[in-house]
Structures are given as structure tokens and as C-alpha cells.
Amino acid sequence: MPGRTRTTAKTSTTARDFTAELNFLTRALKAPSLREAAQRLPERARAENWSHEEFLVACLQREVSARESHGGEGRIRSARFPYRKSLEEFDFGHARGLKRDVIAHLGTLDFVTAKENVVFLGPPGTGKTHLAIGLAIRACQAGHRVAFATAAQWVSRLAEAHHAGRLQAELIKLGLQPARFSWWTRSATSRSRTRPPTCSSNSSPPATNEPR
């Protein structure tokens, strides 16, 4: 019937206009996951009788989750880890003197809020770098910026800044950026290669008489 044909055409045109507007708005917001959710979830929302607020929250949750995931990956890449290791992958059987509950607590990143330092001490091959990278990746995923380097690389960076007359600026850059992590690792030698790493937490940088 003519009347029904006109209604169908109008509905189709409205749907196309809505899709175009949705694409424009989500591009302006740089929210592709929001666009995908808004296109994929309406059928489920109708089937489950979601309110408008529930539908909006579901769409926004997907966008936030996507941004957190992408942001974490970007921070991990920017940190320049030599390899990826997680706390879950750490072999506590190889480091029997290290307590699981201590590492689990460090994994909550409470020491960041408390503005404390974490230091892993032990001979080579006991997992210090693994634990440092695992914590650093956890921090990246939590939204913190991380910088990873060996002690030699940090010394070289600061020495270069000193020779260029910008040491103070470099120190400020490293020390005053909000929520900035710096993970230091160095090689060492020891007669005992079976002693597991130990962990200490301190509110100020640890003193050391070891060669720099």
C-alpha cells in the first residue's frame, strides 16, 4: 500500500541519518569502541528491556575498557622493556626464600600511593629483573608511566646531560613528572648463586657503597 511504502522509506532514511550522525560524533570524540557498541547492543538492549541509562552505561563501559587496554599497551611499549615478564609467571620454586604474599602485596601497587621505593637485592639469575618488569607492567596497566633502563644507561644519560649543562633540567624531568616510574637494574657478581632475591621497601632512595 502507498501509505505503508512511505512509512518504510521514512524509517530507512532515519536509520541512515542516525548511522551517519553516530559515525560523525564518535569520530569527533575519537571513540570507535563507543560507535561499535552503539551499533551492536541495541538488539540486546531491547530483548533485555534495558533503560536508556543502562544502554548508555554499557556503551561507555566498552569505550573505557578499550582505552584502558590500548593505553596500557602504549605505556608498555614506551617503557622499552628488554622483554615482557609478568608477576604470574615468576617461579617461586627457584627463589624459595621469597614470600609470595610479599610480591602479591607489591602487585597491588600500594607502594606507589605511599611514595615508597622497592628494591630487589640478590645475585644474578635469581629473578630481580623479572620481578621489576612484572611490577612495572602492572603499573603500566594501572595507568602509570614507566621508564626502564639499566644503571649504566641511567649513568650515561645523566653524564651526557651534565656535559651538556642541563643536568638539573634532566633531574627535574625524571623526578617531578607525576606518577613516573624509573626501574633500575644492574649486573652483579657473587660467589653464591643459589641465594634468592630479597625485597625491601623504603620511603627514600637506598644508600649503597657498591661501585657506580
UniProtKB/TrEMBL annotation:
Domain IstB-like ATP-binding, residue spans: 27-173
Single biological process term from Gene Ontology: DNA replication
Pfam families for the chain: IstB_IS21
GO molecular function: ATP binding
Alphabetized InterPro entries for the sequence: IstB_ATP-bd (IPR002611), P-loop_NTPase (IPR027417)
Top-level taxon in the UniProt lineage: Bacteria
Residues covered by region (Disordered): 186-212
Stated name of the protein: IstB-like ATP binding protein
Organism placement in taxonomy: Bacteria, Bacillati, Actinomycetota, Actinomycetes, Mycobacteriales
